[in-house]
Design goal:
291 residues, alpha/beta, nine-stranded mixed beta sheet, three-stranded antiparallel beta sheet, 10 helices, 43% helix, rod-shaped
Length: 291
């Protein structure tokens, strides 16, 4: 394989009519231009230029090589410009993956804004509750919500937000059963569990804690279904604020025991090191991290 820089020096020498002029154009010494062209001739095993103190012209073979070399240089410069444009302006395909609740409650409200702000970015969102390996499956970004810290996977982690897990119930249920006034009273009410037998650990804004084990007639381990069951009046549930906000605002749910929370949920944006430098990926990540 020939050195592309040697081809470039050769084309510049021909276009400029000499090594000195080519050196001034490229910023390289005249001797470097002459040496690289001589190396190209050595690799080809043929003389490309007839040069003397009075003349500088292509040989017949040199003319053929010049045409091909010039085309190669033009294509190489076009490829370089394509890379520069890609790095300068966010564009191209960005592949995201997220669980169903994260996609519904965190990504869906943001997608339109991202697409409008970056019209040259194409988003492909994979919604799945299975574990997705970003590197091996070719994803650029994963957005995950979690109660505890994520394992150290070598991925770049950036916190998107932290929200409280609150207690809420439908007005119809509260009309039938009443409202708890303290955490201890929760054990007299029907609740909707999340598939775990662990008791509820509630923390007050003052720092006080309470551990209760209310009965759960129904357990649901998916946030959307948990919200639907709570709105249907099946009991009191622990819901992340993002999941409950719209229903609270519309009056479909009522927040219980203000000042108490049943833990927190952190949402994190993850990217592989090798893809995180692309402007398109960076632009999407920054948009997701905006408050």
């Amino acid at each position: 394989m020939y050195n592309l820089n040697d081809l470039r020096f050769f084309v510049q020498a021909v276009d400029c009519g000499g090594f000195a002029a080519a050196g001034r154009l490229s910023g390289a010494p005249k001797s470097t231009v002459a040496k690289r062209v001589a190396e190209l001739e050595r690799q080809l095993g043929a003389r490309l230029l007839q040069r003397s103190s009075r003349s500088f012209r292509l040989t017949d073979l040199g003319r053929d090589v010049y045409e091909h070399a010039r085309a190669a240089v033009i294509e190489a410069e076009a490829a370089e410009q394509a890379v520069k444009r890609r790095l300068a302006e966010p564009s191209g395909l960005v592949r995201l993956t997220a669980s169903v609740p994260v996609a519904r409650f965190h990504l869906a409200p943001r997608l339109a804004g991202i697409m409008q702000r970056h019209p040259k970015i194409e988003l492909r969102l994979n919604v799945s509750d299975r574990f997705v390996d970003l590197v091996h499956e070719g994803f650029d970004i994963a957005v995950r919500s979690h109660a505890g810290p994520l394992a150290d996977s070598g991925l770049v982690q950036r916190r998107m937000g932290v929200e409280a897990v609150i207690l809420a119930a439908a007005p119809d249920y509260l009309a039938r059963a009443g409202s708890p006034r303290t955490p201890a009273e929760l054990e007299r009410f029907e609740t909707i569990g999340t598939g775990s037998d662990a008791p509820w650990t509630l923390t007050h804004e003052s720092g006080a804690q309470a551990v209760v084990s209310p009965p759960a007639r129904l357990s649901v381990d998916e946030a959307g279904m948990l919200l639907a069951a709570t709105r249907a009046g099946l009991g009191i549930a622990c819901l992340p604020e993002t999941v409950a906000d719209a229903a609270l605002a519309s009056g479909e749910l009522v927040r219980l025991l203000p000042g108490w929370r049943a833990g927190t949920i952190t949402t994190t944006v993850l990217t592989p090191h090798r893809r995180g430098v692309l402007p398109s990926v960076r632009a999407v990540v920054e948009a997701l991290l905006e408050v």
